[in-house]
Amino acid sequence: MSEQRLRGLPQIVIGSFLMLLFIIAAALNYNMAELISGSLIKFAMNGIFVLALIPMINAGVGLNFGSSVGITAGLMGMCMAIQFRLTGITGFLAAVIISIPIAIVFGFFYGRILNRVKGKEDIAAIFIGFAFIPLMNFFWTVAPFSNREMLYPIGGSGLRPKISLANYFTKVLDQLFVVKIGTIEVPWGLLFFYAVIALIIVAFFKTKKGKALIAIGSYENFCKLSGLGINSNRILGVILSTVLAGIGICVYAQSYGFVELYGGPGAFAFPAISAILVGGCTGKRATVCQAMLGTYLYQTIFLLSAPIANTLLVPQMAEIVRMIITNGIILYAFLNQRKAGVHDEK
Amino acid sequence: MNDCITIQQISKNFGNQKALDHIDLGIKKGEIYGLVGVNGSGKSTLMNILFGNRVISESGGYTGQIRIENRTIAIANTKDAIKNGIGMIHQEFMLIPELSIYESINLNKEKTINQNKQSWLQKISYLDDKENKTLAKKTLKTLGFDIDVSLLVKNLSVNTKQFVEIARAINTDDLKLLLLDEPTAALNTEDSNILMKIIKDLAATGVAILFCSHRLHEVCNLCDKVSVLRDGRLVSTYGHQEMSVELLAKEMIGSEVDQMIREKGCTSEETILTLQDFSVKSPEERIRGLNLAVKKKEIMGITSLSGHGKAALCYGIIGYYPMTGEVFVAGEKKNNTISDSIAKGLFLLPDDRKEMGLMMEESVEYNIVFSSFQLKDKFKKKILKLFSVENMKIIEPYVKKQIAKLNIKCTSQKQKVRELSGGNQQKVCIARAAAMDPKILIVMEPTRGIDIGAKEKILEMIVKMNRDRDMTILVASSEIEELKRICDRIVVLCEGRLSGILDPGASEEEFALALTGELNNE
Amino acid sequence: MKNKLNAGSDMIFPEKHLVPLIFVALAIICYFLADVTPGFVVEQVTVRFIRNSVLVLALIVPILAGMGLNFSIIVGAMAAQASYIIVLNANLPGGIGAVTVFGLTLVFNILIGLLLGKLMNIVKGREMITSIVIGLLANYIYQLVFLVGFGTVIPVNNEHIVLDSGVGVKSMLDLKIYRDFFNSFGTFQIGGTPISVFLILMILAIAFLVYYITRTPLGQNIKTVGLSAIKAELAGINVDQMRIIAIVISTVLAGIGQFIYLQNIGSLNVYTEHLNEDTFSCAALLVGGATIKSAKVRQALFGVVIIHAIFILSPLAGMNSFNNVALGEYFRSFIVYGVIALALILNIRLEENKERE
After folding, report:
1. Which of B59, B404, C130, C228 is the most buried if burial means most Cβ atoms within 10 Å?
2. Is residue C326 part of a domain?
């Protein structure tokens, strides 16, 4: 089937590009062990955003271009944890736990809205996400947090745009159970956390509810005729995605060392979507494997391309190429998806 | 021959299915030519070819020759058809509701302030609304209508819309052939008569007319000549003097040998399903104020021409399309949701198997157990006392047994349904229904697109479920011959209303009359 | 003049004008909170009106063709910027330069429009999201060309526009020589800003052009395609061709819009000037009362005025009432994205209801 062949094309291109980067990196005498352990951290720190796309895709709600909604819930969880001065792993887990109920509430309303725009969720989600950011900016500005480390240092009011986690839970997962294998440092704690989330998703889609969700995503009319609640199941999918995105930002922030408020949540949707598409997802159904493969390919390319571009070419080049790849993959998927869809109709 | 249009050896296949088989037809200038046939006889395919409809070119085009005034023409798209002087009157819902009357009538042939010969210049010249309105008004006047042409189409009544549609088709200088597809479906008798007169007047000006209708008495009144299509073949042609409603009806259905395979009369007297003042609105069809009682253990057939309500009736009962009126299942009132229908023991196997009846990319096994696993809590086990998952220990032997019992041909029970033949796919559907074990099963078009061998097996399975499990079954089908073989009673619908409840022993003629709404019940 | 083409002309007054009325009210509230002179507002709004209105007008035709908000107008804008850079690099002076820029903009955008139109025909049904992704992608390709390609692949002819390193276009370019050319046709002052009469005439001409297109058989065909592609096909209209024409018109107008905008500003922020112009223009059109299904010239022009008034006033209003400029800024970006989100949600819902009937 020619379609099958076409579907593999991006993976082949990206895979060869990655190989090329590794070869160049080796030729330039980069520390390969450092790069590889760096790639593992990059993988797990961004990976949960990609996993978070799965429930929505499988429920037929499409690619979550509005992940800032879920991410905001995670940010609120972390702000609460900082406010109560919870540190270390306790602080991290508290942030996750606090973010979950917030994400459920956000996800519920987000899902209700997405049910109203069935068939055109993508475009609506983008602007719901965009509009949600300035809305939350009001909140960050007026929210009654009182921990000095969170507020603008002088003058101004409200939370500062970039809250340092240095005194709280910077790298608690990254540095949990780090074991050296050969010269490569493996962050087992971080990978373990990622694996747990991935396993929960795999397990969920084995249950009755999970199976119903997948069936609704792929065969909406069939399920409607079978008497399954389409809208309520779609909302469930959206809530799951929102909760996972919230957890995702907590993991990301502990690794990055900062909580980025205000415009921060807007930057995660496109890279995550691009990653899962690279993994071989067609936008109709997604698996954890696709998410993992996609995240690793996508993130590692960026990890490698930045120093290489800086050495060889113009410094800004790395970022530009990165964004061209990100958006190019999404556009390619759209063009291809539509063709596949036409085929299905016949 | 002074034919205006000659059709020679036109054939058309959809995949392996022959839709039209070497049709020859000639229409003279000023002649009104009738075309009758049941659904699937090829009527609309012929119309679509003549008007260059997209479905034709997208499914590989047609073979044969079309000649207009002794010029051979190729019709690849609607633009070609219009260019060659072919016009078509669609049903009224093909108008665009947001446009005004005059915009609709002049669509794609607008007059501009400076008329240009060059077509691209004409396209970007300023519209002459005054002229367009006058033109529209004039055209409507020839139809006997005098209304404000700047009204929007959506604000018009159904029959006014139909006349606007007619005006649109005849508003051209070089109309040679006019195609009419069920033009009177939306009209009452009075307006139909007006339309008949308009068509006659039009023919008198030298336009050739091809008239498709299921209202046989109109065809008999109007047409100079009529041809009957059956299964893609032109079976007979009659002149005005020879035709009669009964004759045409008989020709449409053809004669079939009856094979009774089921003993009748095993139904109980108890009523299990009652419809009161039941109305349904689906995108294509309406059911209007139906009253019906189905007896327990009965197999009831439902038939109509397509678009006349048999699908809407089934989907309405299950709750897929919004309905009004009341439905009682075994005396209990049912609400309008599908989940309530299923809770009350109804289940429906749809006509659109690929889209609604099967999960094409899933395995045979999963398709069979899915509904009962999700809705009836069958085949499940609990993990950690909390999460329900499929219990493969029960599922695998069950599916194996069903595959053997129904003789489903597949390489394994894990094979994807997409890879099965149509007949085996339908068997999978029936196995799914059997696993649900409903009190009332509604089956739509059970034998559509299925080869003959599998057809018999499927009919047998339906009869068997009815006999062994005392299941009440409603079968909606356009295959009257099959319904006659398995049903206790057959409901015939026309234009969304009950046209008659016939005994399976009723004659072909009675069925044909009931289908076209000509059966006199009194 | 009453436009009979309007699909919703049978709607009653308040419902039809509800959206613009709400935003007019917001603008008025902001005006009182902002505590500025009317002169200031008029001056600022007029200048921005001149810079922005053609881009908003560029959105109308694709909406009529049923393709929704065409976010890829940003590609047209970038093509205009590229034309300026190319002409600067060729050292073409004032008059000839300005005319060349204009010519290049037209040529580029016709080609880009044809390409985008083809792409949009592949992704029928999800044109809007595709146009967003195309816009983003084009932005980075544009950066790649002028930041990395310039000085490496593209030869440098004009040393003034290249970065010190010899690679990449400077982030700020001076376009005064072209501005002076247009201003030489006559200017008038609003506040302290000189406005070229030529530009005003051009904007009026384009506004009329868009209106004119809707009043031709071509416009009628495009509109029919937008109302129902299937029914349009039955009337013998070439649907795909109409959609491509709509996108070409939109892209070309966007290019002209950016040409006017830059020409008026007199300088070019090479890498940032075009950012957010797509969403902003869409928001302006919607604020004026258009929807993703119907749009009119007067809604575009009115929308530009209102949204700019809110944009100018809301940070000042935020400053005065909450002692916080930031709040006003959040408010205005919320308006931009919120109004688009709302329009999408309401319209997609309506569309679905219509299909069900």
Report:
1. C130
2. no
